Amino acid sequence: MPVHPIVLDVDTGTDDALAILYAVQHPDVDVRGISCVAGNASLEQVVANTHKVLDAASAPEIPVAAGAVKPLIERTRQEEAFHGEDGLGGIVLPGTERTPSRLTAVELLRQQIVDADTTVTLVGLAPQTNIAMLLTLHPEVADHLERILFMGGSAGTGNITAVAEFNVWQDPEAATCVIESGVPVTMYGLDVFTRLTVPQKHAERFAASDHPAQRLAGELLLRRGSRADGSQQEYVGQIGDAGALVYLTHPELFTTASHPTRVNLSGIGRGQTIVDRRTVAQDAAELGRDPWRTIEVVLDLDVTKAAQAFIDVMNAYAA
Ligand code: RIB
Ligand code: CA
């Protein structure tokens, strides 16, 4: 099986936590560093959450660095309604001995990408401010990147507005930098994100486990359907950001297509990823318009097999 050297950019977050648990346990994924950005919680909280999730996973020393406290232009707007004030839906984890890197997120990403012995995949699970700053300050990273795989945007509806998904809505200019960067880009959008769910019986089994990583995965999954404001909602069990990692390790379970894509930066559609899925694309150059960047967009998946891939990795914690 191929090994995937990756760097992760996160705003941990209930589902970033599931993604970290999956990435550090999967035998074919090599996590070289984790950069943090404010998003689902404050930057300080995101760093602490990330360290505590690594503890639960008994992960080796993986450098974790703090990055942007706010988007490139706008003020930050945290997603507390879903993830709670602490980002982890109120789950209390033990204190951590891990300390953040002395490097900034951008410096850590540059170091881990440029100094790597091979090309690296940058997996973004958060507003893309750190990644945009990396590409702007250190354009040389492009030659060392296999791909940027980001959870964000949607080829369908949004979650924050009718058309905008949280990560892109939080920093649409940063998402534009990423899509326009020239680095091969894959978008794992909200339309597939919301479909990848784990049955409740597995969430309950994990939550009852003696193993800290399995127990955390179960508790997180049980919160992935109920809202932190206490309002009732049926169990859903979305693995969320972790789905992007399942795509990385099991691309055969997903359907992708190349589509011209652009971020809407203005008006009521601000933050929308416009995916041009027309089969007969118009020739933008002929029409005198800027050509849109073509990116790979994940459009469909085998839900049962992808969920099983996630369950298998969680099972392995106590195997
Ligand atoms: O919109 C989905 C994204 O925002 C994910 O990255 C998740 O963490 C959420 O809050
Ligand atoms: Ca996230």
How are the secondary structure elements laid out?
Layout: E1 4-10, H1 14-25, E2 29-36, H2 43-56, E3 64-66, H3 80-83, H4 105-114, E4 120-124, H5 129-137, E5 145-151, H6 166-170, H7 172-179, E6 185-188, H8 190-193, H9 200-207, H10 212-223, H11 242-249, E7 254-263, E8 273-275, E9 293-301, H12 303-316
Parallel strand pairs: 1-2, 1-4, 2-3, 4-5, 5-6, 6-9
Antiparallel strand pairs: 7-8, 7-9
The protein binds alpha-D-ribofuranose (RIB) and calcium ion.
Residues 11, 13, 15-16, 40, 125-126, 241 line the site of calcium ion.
The figure for the number of domains is: 1
- The name CATH uses for the topology is Inosine-uridine Nucleoside N-ribohydrolase, Chain A
How big a fraction of the residues is strand?
15-25%
CATH-derived architecture = Alpha-Beta Complex
List ligands, each type once.
alpha-D-ribofuranose, calcium ion
What CATH first level would be assigned?
A: Alpha Beta
Structure description:
With 319 residues, the chain is of the alpha/beta class. The chain has one domain (4-316): Inosine-uridine Nucleoside N-ribohydrolase, Chain A (Alpha-Beta Complex). The protein has 12 helices and 9 strands. The chain has helices at residues 14-25, 43-56, 80-83, 105-114, 129-137, 166-170, 172-179, 190-193, 200-207, 212-223, 242-249, 303-316; strands at residues 4-10, 29-36, 64-66, 120-124, 145-151, 185-188, 254-263, 273-275, 293-301. Strand 1, helix 1 and strand 2 form a beta-alpha-beta unit. Bound molecules: alpha-D-ribofuranose and calcium ion. Residues 11, 13, 15-16, 40, 125-126, 241 line the site of calcium ion (CA).
